Structures are given as C-alpha cells and as structure tokens.
Amino acid sequence: MRFSWISWPHPSTSVRSVIALGALLMVVVLGMTGYEIWRQYNSTITLAERNLNVLADVLVGEIGRTISGVDSVVEQSVLDLSTEGNRPPEQIRRTLRDRATGVPAIFGLLLIDAQGLPIASLHSLSPRHHAFAQSIRASVAGQNLPIHVGTVTAAPFDGTPIIPFSRLRHDAAGNIAGITVAAMSVQYFQEIFLQVKSKTVTTLTLTLARQDGAILVQTPEGATTKMSGMTEFRPDSRDNGLIHDDDTSAGRIVAFRTLRPYGLKLSVAVNAADLLNLWRSNALRLLLAALVAALVVAALIWAILRRLALDEAQRANLRSIDNQRRMAQFSLDAGADMVVWTNDKGSIIYANPAAHQALGYAPGTLFNRSIPDIDPSVPPAAWEGRLDDLRRAGTLRFETSLRTLSGKLISVEVSIALLQADGRDHTCAVIRDIGAHKQSEAILAERTKRLEASNAELEQFAYVASHDLREPLRMVNSFVALLARRFGDQMDPEAREYVEFAREGALRMDRLILDLLEYSRVGSTGRPMAAVDLGTVLNDVRQTLALTLNEAGAELILPASLPKVWGDFDELARLLGNLIGNGLKYRHSDRLPRIEVECLTQDGQITLSVRDNGIGIAPQYFDRIFRIFQRLHGRDRYDGTGIGLAICKKIVERHGGRIWVSSTPDQGSTFFFTLKPAPAA
Ligand code: ADP
C-alpha cells in the first residue's frame, strides 16, 4: 500500500504525540542554542571587561610607578641643585647621571634657569638645546604648574621622540628659579604597552594621553589621532572606570585610569566588533549545529511518522482482509448454494451449512466424508480420473445427482474448480439444487407446447372460419346480383336501393373477412427469419404503390442507404406498404402528400420512421388506432376496415420490436417502429 499523508484524515493519538514531541524537541534545541549564544555573548563581554580592567590596573600601576620614579629623580635633582649651589656644570651633570641611572624611562635630564637657558644636561649642550630648553621653560612657566607633562617632541640631541616631564624650581624667596626637565623615553612606554599586548589575543588599543587629549604613547601607533573627543576624556568623565563607547563607528569597550598628580589618562580599549568576531563565528557554528540537530529531529519524526503510517496502513489492510474473509464466510454460511471443498484424495475438508442441509447431514458431519459417499456417479476408483479432467480443464460444469443421507437422489448442477494450496490440489465445488428448476422447466415446456398447439388451432380456426365464411357470402353476393339482374326492372327504386345495400354489405363483409384472414396469417407462413435488405423492401413497396403515388402527385423520400434487418421480407413489405399507404390515404386536402422514410441505428437497434404531412391524429387516439377494427373516420370519408395498423403492430411485435406514433393534428403524423439488425454474416 502506498504511503500517503492524505490517508490520515484523523491523525491518531500516537501520531499527534510524535508530532508534539518532535516540535518540543526542536523548541528545546533551538531554545538552548539561543540561550547558549546569549550566554557566550554575555561572558565574552564580561570577560573582556574584566580583562580590560585588570590590564588597565596593571598598566596604571606600572606606568604610575615609572612616572613617579621619573618624578622623584626630577625632585631629587631639584634638591641637589639647591644644596650643591653653584657648582661647575660638569659636576652637576655627573650628579644628574647618577640620579638618572637605574631609571630606564629617563632619556635625558635638563636644568633650565629662570630665563629658560640650560644650566646643565645629561647630554652635552648645543645651540639647539638652548632653544629647546627655552620652549619648555616657556610652556611650563606659562601654565604655572608645579609638574608639567609636555607633548611628544623630538629630543634636540638626536631626534628621539620624548615626553618632557618638568617641575618648577623656586629660590629661597619663593620666586621661580627655573625648571628641571626629564625627557621620558616614548619607546620605554611603548615597550611596556607591547609587553602587555603580546600577552593578549584580542587587538587592544593602549593609550597614554594627557587630560587634554594629547596622545603621548599609543599602541598600535596612530590608532587614534585625537583623544579629546572620546567619552573618557570629556571634562565630566570620572577618573577611573569602564565604558561602552558606542559613539565611535566600530564601538569600543574602554577601561580608563587617571594618573592624578600628572594629569594623565591611560586607556585600554578593545574594538567591540573585533571582540565579538570570535563570538559571532562561534554563534554561527552553534546555530548551524542546532539547525543540523533540528533537521535530524525532523528526519527522525518523519521516519517515525512514516513507520506509524505504514503500520496504520498495514492494520487497515489486515482489517480489510479480515472483513473480506468474514464476508466470504458469511456468504458461504448464508448462501443457498452448496459449497464443498475436498483435498486431492477426494475427502471433504469443508462443506457449508447449505450442503449439510440439502444432503440431510447434521452440521459438521460431512467433514472427512469422501465425494463417492455423496455422488454415486463418482465411484472411488473414478476420483483420480475426475481430478485429471480438472487439471486439464481448470473448471468443470455438469449436471449430476447427489445422494442424501436418507438415500434420496437430488438433481444438481455442479461447477467445480481446482485450487493449489500447500502444494496440493484442492477442489471447490459450488452445487445448485436444480430439482425444483427442472420440474418447473418441464411444466413450462409442457405449457408452451399446449399453448403452441392451441395457437395453431386458433389460427387454423380463423383461417378455416374466414375461408368457409366467404363461401356462403359469395353465394349471398351472387344471388343478390342475380336478383338485381333478373327482377331489377320490376322493382321500385326503393327495393333496388335495398338490394344495392345488401350487395355492398356482402362486399364489405368479404373485405373484412379477407383482412381478418391476412391478420391471422401474420407469422404463420412458416418461413424462417432471414437477413432482409430494407432498401430492397422499400423499392418493392415503391413499385407496388407507384400508380397511387403518381395519381396523388405524392413525393416519397427514402434514405440513401439502409441496413439489413432480421425478419421476413413479405411481412416487412406489408408493414411499410401499410404505413406509406396510410400516409397517402390520410393526406391533407390543402397540400400534396409528402412521405419521408428515415432510419436510425443506435445501441444495436434500428428505428425506422414514416413521416407524412397529412391530416394528423389527435393524441388521445395514439393507442387506439393500433387495435383491430378501430377507425377514426367514417367509410364515407376514408375507405378502410381499421385492420391495417393492427397488422403492422402484429408484424413489428413478431420481429421483436415495438411501434408507436407521434402526430400533430392538421400537420402530419410520424409512425416509428424498431427492428433488429441482421447478425453479421
Ligand atoms: P384503415 O386505414 O383501414 O381505417 P388502419 O388500421 O390503417 O385502418 O388505421 C386506423 C385509423 O388510424 C384510421 O382509420 C385513421 O383514422 C388513422 N390513421 C392511420 N394512419 C393515419 C395517417 N397516416 N394519418 C392520419 N390518420 C391515420
């Protein structure tokens, strides 16, 4: 049986549960995936935040320590200068070198007097040095800050990028005596940044900038050109914290710290998009896995449903087989015919209740009896022969007599067939008790015989009667004629009229008897039926009626081709002659008669019609006109005996057909009749 969803108009509970379970499973899988993706997102962000905070703390500690180291060297140098007073510059330089040694962040140290001129430096002084010192002095003094961190500049000694870090010096009176500048190595800070960066996987942007946003050190270099617009650099920004900055196009997560006394800000930023890249590809992978899982679940459900559907179909199949079996059993139990199964040895293995009843056995007692026990025409030795016959023919049909338990013989018709089961021959006989049938057949045959005899007798009687009746009639006729001839002169006109009436009556009587004779002769000619060409019949009729047709100026239209029918040529000629003749006889006084014969073959039956344009017939007479001696008009208007159509009816019925009329008074009539086609030669 073909699997089809449509075969499930009402899904069973199991089908519904499987679908529900499958849907639930899919929801769980997709839900869990969604949750996991959300959780990973959160943990990615949280982890990043934590890492950024830790990094920021580490860096701020490291850089803070470095700067405060630089600061303390600068402070120390300021002190040194105040205690050592006006010592030769070479000596001061030595002191400065001693101080700077051990603080790797310091690239140079420079003492500038109140006028901005260099007093002493770690490096030997040059004119460029002078200008540099003056510009630093100007910038620090201008801002009037005790500590000042400048922007990145090129060191005058060799162009190395440095960050000037300066403190103001005051004399005993509290006036500005000059500044001490430490050139912090940008590269030193960069190395710290790189060291930190090398330990992280994600792309970080580390920035050390001044509070005003001027970048001092940044890794990767040039990642940001200006920090002043960034959220963490806004004037209202907190000192330390972590922000999600969505202002920038990429979106950043930034941990920032403030190195308060120096007015510096350190930020560790990560690009949110970069950060989420890993999460995104993970999420995609998870989604794909979930999709695959959902597909697997769907496939599983489909497979289970298919299995269930097949089971259902199988169960339905079994139910239908069982129903068929029960129906077959019922028809065996309730059937009127006997059904007897035997094995190849001729032993009865099954007999239905009808068989037990008809053969007079108690229910079930025919089992294991053999066929010769119930059929005397098959002695035990003949069983093999019957089986061979069956093997050759497949089925056999014959009449025989069976013996009941009481020894009575009953006439039966047997239809027996061979069936192979378990590699052995079995026979199944359907047996019909035809005793009653035979009896009624005999009665029917007897009755038919008697009826035929009485019919023949009747026809003989009609023939003889009409024949014999004509004799005295002829006598009456001739004597009336004689009377008229011999005594006509002596008779008064009245007597002559009476004699004329008597003669006419006798003539009419003769015509009636002749018609009756003709009526009784239909079907009694003894001629066998044969294939008759209707075309030939109609030509014959046309010739017979030629004169009448001509006189009436009538038009007779016949079909171009006509089939052959099964019948009697003469009777068919009389039938068509009568109908065409009537068409002529009952013509309309206003028009010339037109008679058309048509033929239609349909469903193995031939229907002929004869249509005229005559006076027509009122519908209430459609049946009556086919009865014998029934006329619708007086003899004075239309001559006739009223037997023509009765003869037509008898002829058509003898040919196994029927005849009828349809007509409209004053317009014309159409007579129809059916015939049987001649069997193919
Ligand atoms: P008849 O012609 O000898 O009277 P029929 O048996 O042939 O007898 O016809 C019976 C009656 O049916 C007729 O008397 C006539 O009234 C009517 N009849 C038969 N054929 C036609 C016809 N073609 N047109 C009109 N009336 C008809």
Explained architecture:
- There is one protein chain.
- A hairpin with a 4-residue loop joins β7 and β8.
- Residues about 1-10 have low confidence and may be disordered.
- This protein is an alpha+beta fold and about 675 residues long.
- Helix content is about 50%, strand content about 20%.
- The chain has 13 helices and 23 strands.
- α1 runs antiparallel to α2 (about 90-100), α1 runs antiparallel to α4 and α12 (about 570-585) packs antiparallel against α13.
- The longest helix is centred in the first third of the chain and has 72 residues, at about 15-85.
- The strands form 5 sheets. Strands 1, 2, 3, 4, 5 and 6 form a 6-stranded antiparallel β-sheet that branches.
- The protein has helices spanning about 15-85, 90-100, 125-145, 185-200, 270-335, 355-360, 370-375, 385-395, 435-485, 495-520, 535-550, 570-585, 645-655; strands spanning about 105-115, 120, 145-150, 155, 160-170, 175-185, 205-210, 215-220, 240-245, 250-260, 265-270, 340, 350, 395-405, 410-420, 425-435, 530-535, 555, 565, 595-600, 605-610, 660-665, 670-675.
- The protein folds into 4 domains: about 10-305, Beta-Lactamase (2-Layer Sandwich), CATH 3.30.450; about 335-435, PAS domain (Beta-Lactamase); about 440-520, Signal transduction histidine kinase, dimerisation/phosphotransfer (DHp) domain (Helix Hairpins, Orthogonal Bundle); about 530-675, Histidine kinase-like ATPase, C-terminal domain (Heat Shock Protein 90, 2-Layer Sandwich).
- Bound molecules: adenosine-5'-diphosphate.
- Adenosine-5'-diphosphate (ADP) binds near residues 615, 644 and 646.
